[in-house]
Write a structure and sequence with these properties.
This protein is α/β, with parallel strands linked by helices. Helices cover 39% and strands 10% of the residues. The protein contains 10 helices and 8 strands. The strands form 3 sheets. A 4-stranded parallel β-sheet has the order 2-1-3-4, sandwiched between helices. It has a two-stranded parallel ribbon with strand order 5-6. Helix 2 (50-60) packs across helix 5 (154-171) and helix 6 packs parallel to helix 10 (303-317). The chain is globular. The two termini are 44 Å apart. Residues 1-38 have low confidence and may be disordered. Bound molecules: zinc ion. Zinc ion binds next to loops.
Length: 344
């Protein structure tokens, strides 16, 4: 009742003011209640890992308040949120997670602190069916926790973006056209990334289209683009591989003639260096699972930037030509600067 009255009186005051200030000026055509969200009324959105935060940022643009919770450069699989994250989660209207058991401690904290009427959206579960779950060395079937890395596959990430658009629009219908326009622009970027990958992968000699990484992030990507994940060094409990497992990997690299193997700064390098030295493969430790390139605010600090950066490392190392990736626009799809927060 009070809100209705004050909106009505504001509208009246604005109309009176407009009439007094300039009799020729048209009356305001919108009441404050139907204006696009401003920062004070914007949806409060939380996301977990940075690639997902970037997807949400692209769709929500400048019309949402967005806070990531998993700092870049930490192991997202073992990340335990600090108690202070509970306050952030308790204020959220929407919480986007990858799901598929990636962020269990954060999910538990989100459930325990959920604001009445708020929602937790688990993107992975809404993107692939149980039949499409991938299991492998690092994510063995007996644990019933699938490989959760859907986002390196851009077509699966486009589905994430669609779910984000639909959830933002349902909660904030006044801005649904804006979210839809951002989704359409993001979908065009994904289409150009997909086309560039389909152009670049075939330039890798067929016998080299094999990935061996420390941490297995490429299961879904590989299936889509005709690359084989031949192995990963990391056991399912995120400990280090045994001497037997290391010896098996060295044998496999030599048997398959794999020219390069890949790691990232988040995970231990010494074992991969040993495997490379013993097998004769080149070791490249620059891949990233969920740590975006550059710094927050840089144009390449984005999901698309992450994809292009990883592929420009992998494809040449396996003997291919990654120049098609140079054509992909990795900058944000929306105008202006968002207030997304990426903890470092
Ligand atoms: Zn990972």
């Amino acid at each position: 009742m009070f809100a209705k009255l004050s909106v009505a009186s504001l509208f009246l005051a604005a109309a009176v003011f407009a009439a007094c200030a300039s009799p020729a000026a048209p009356a305001p055509t919108e009441s404050p209640a139907s204006s696009p969200s401003t920062s004070s009324s914007a949806l409060n959105v939380v996301a977990t890992v940075s690639p997902i935060t970037s997807v949400v940022e692209n769709i929500g643009g400048t019309r949402i308040d967005l806070q990531g919770v998993v700092p870049e450069g930490v192991n997202s699989h073992t990340f335990e949120p600090a108690p202070s994250v509970a306050a952030t989660l308790s204020q959220a209207d929407l919480i986007f997670l990858n799901g598929l058991f990636l962020e269990e401690p954060t999910l538990e904290m989100a459930k325990a602190n959920l604001k009445p009427g708020a929602s937790i959206v688990s993107l992975g579960e809404q993107t692939i069916t149980r039949e499409e779950w991938q299991f492998d060395f690092s994510f063995p079937k007996e644990f019933e926790h699938p490989n959760p890395h859907l986002w390196p596959d851009p077509i699966l990430t486009l589905r994430y973006a669609e779910i984000v658009r639909d959830n933002l629009s349902a909660r904030d219908p006044a801005n649904s056209d804006y979210y839809s326009a951002n989704y359409d622009a993001f979908a065009a970027r994904i289409a150009s990334l997909d086309a560039a990958i389909k152009e670049a992968i075939p330039t890798i000699p067929p016998e080299n289209r094999k990935l061996l990484t420390y941490h297995d992030s490429w299961a879904y990507f590989a299936g889509r683009y005709g690359v084989t994940v031949v192995g990963a060094a990391q056991p399912e409990d995120f400990s280090e591989p045994s001497a037997r497992e290391v010896a098996d990997l060295i044998n496999q690299i030599q048997t398959e003639g794999i020219p390069a193997i890949f790691g990232s700064e988040v995970f231990p390098n010494d074992i991969m260096e040993t495997i490379a030295a013993e097998s004769g493969a080149v070791y490249i430790d620059e891949l990233s699972d969920d740590d975006l390139p550059g710094a927050p605010g840089d144009p390449d600090h984005s999901y698309l930037g992450l994809e292009v950066a990883n592929l420009k490392i992998i494809i040449p190392a396996l003997g291919g030509d990654a120049s098609a990736l140079d054509e992909v626009d990795i900058s944000p799809v929306f105008e202006g600067a968002s207030n997304a927060v990426y903890p470092q």
